[in-house]
TrEMBL record:
The lineage of its organism: Eukaryota, Fungi, Dikarya, Ascomycota, Pezizomycotina. Keywords: Membrane, Transmembrane, Transmembrane helix. InterPro entries: Fatty_acid_hydroxylase (IPR006694), Sterol_Desaturase_Related (IPR050307). One of its GO terms (cellular component) is membrane. This is Fatty acid hydroxylase domain-containing protein. GO terms for molecular function: iron ion binding; oxidoreductase activity. Pfam families: FA_hydroxylase (PF04116). The chain crosses the membrane at residues 25-46, 175-193, 230-251. GO terms for biological process: lipid biosynthetic process. Residues 187-320 form the Fatty acid hydroxylase domain. The keyword Transcription regulation does not apply. The keyword Transmembrane helix applies.
Length: 346
């Protein structure tokens, strides 16, 4: 009996849309756009009602009012334009990939169970390297621990797929299929974003033309704020934003729905990086890329450092890491003092 004969038969069909009045494809671009303003709105609400200035140690209100070289209305216009064009391009690219197909989940779980069964075939050989006879060991535990006996013996009939997959094999396969694989898709997706964005961002600074024409737009903001995260030249918005997301989505084989939540995570990280707030439970702090880390990059004296967005890894490896320290805090203090002086002389 070969593998295809024992797999449950199934028919793939397009998934029912999450909401009845809009396709998942369209929804997957509406949600991140709405999410961008919702997340930004939450920060704004905190700003207005809960005095989060206590968590904003870097810039004074006077700096927020005077140091940026782009007005808030211009930032709003450019951000909206970028979101519309990015989503339109993303929609066209995703449409070519077709809808998510469902209906073969049991079969996919069985495929994973058979992969586990195949892996077991290596166990007796590995045990033999340590001088252990797997089959003898299996016979000793066959009554008390049948699942372990099966593994020690190489998965039963070595070299053949049994039509009777063990309950534990199916349970583990279920866990892999529904939880571990999607988690790995998300983790590897963010690693791809981190890598792509570090090198693309660094190149935008390294090449004079690219910096002057393209990336300097984003650096009009010396004091970034939550909803300024997507304020950038359209070339940057497409080449870095859409480019990195498309690569991560494609290489990890995510479904549209996964892509939707993945995109939301990326947007949250972008917004959080631009808040300038230092909340104790900020998710970025877990990986080191707190808002302070990125705010430092927005300062004229820190612009050649901290190109990463998700982890410190590439900055650390490539020698561009500058974590908050006495020197940077002194520089921030000088900026605050200079602004106060200018305001007083007006
Ligand atoms: Zn930059």
């Amino acid at each position: 009996m070969n593998a295809s004969e024992i797999l449950p038969s199934c028919t793939l069909r397009p998934a029912e849309p999450l909401l009845p009045f809009v396709s998942d494809l369209t929804l997957s671009f509406i949600v991140p756009t709405v999410g961008y303003w919702l997340i930004s709105g939450v920060y704004l609400m905190f700003e207005l009602f809960y005095g989060v200035e206590d968590y904003s140690p870097l810039h004074t209100p006077a700096e927020k009012l005077t140091r940026n070289r782009a007005t808030k209305s211009h930032v709003f216009y450019i951000t909206m334009r970028n979101l519309v064009i990015q989503n339109a391009l993303g929609w066209v690219l995703a449409r070519r990939a077709g809808p998510d197909l469902y209906g073969c989940e049991d079969r996919d779980v069985a495929v994973w169970a058979m992969r586990l069964r195949s892996l077991q075939q290596w166990i007796p050989s590995l045990l033999a390297l340590a001088g252990i006879d797997g089959k003898s060991a299996a016979s000793r535990v066959s009554h008390s621990m049948p699942a372990l006996a099966q593994v020690l013996a190489g998965g039963g009939q070595a070299g053949e797929f049994s039509p009777f997959l063990a309950r534990w094999e199916l349970s583990l396969a279920h866990l892999l299929y529904y939880y571990l694989v999607p988690t790995m898709q998300f983790v590897s997706g963010y690693m791809i974003l981190d890598t792509y964005q570090y090198f693309a961002h660094r190149m935008l600074h390294q090449n004079r033309w690219l910096y002057r024409v393209v990336h300097s737009v984003h650096h009009h903001l010396v004091v970034p704020y939550p909803w300024s995260a997507f304020y950038a030249h359209i070339i940057e918005a497409l080449a870095v934003g859409v480019g990195s997301a498309t690569l991560a989505f494609t290489l990890t084989g995510m479904t549209l729905r996964q892509g939707m939540w993945f995109g939301m995570g990326a947007i949250f990280n972008e917004i959080n990086s631009h808040t300038g707030y230092d909340f104790p439970l900020s998710p970025g702090r877990l990986l080191g890329t707190s808002p302070i880390f990125h705010d430092l990059h927005h300062q004229s004296w820190g612009v050649k450092y901290n190109f990463g967005f998700y982890t410190l890894f590439w900055d650390w490896l490539c020698g561009t890491l500058w974590m908050e320290d006495e020197h940077s805090m002194r520089k921030y203090a000088e900026g605050r003092a200079m602004t106060e002086k200018k305001m007083a002389n007006k």
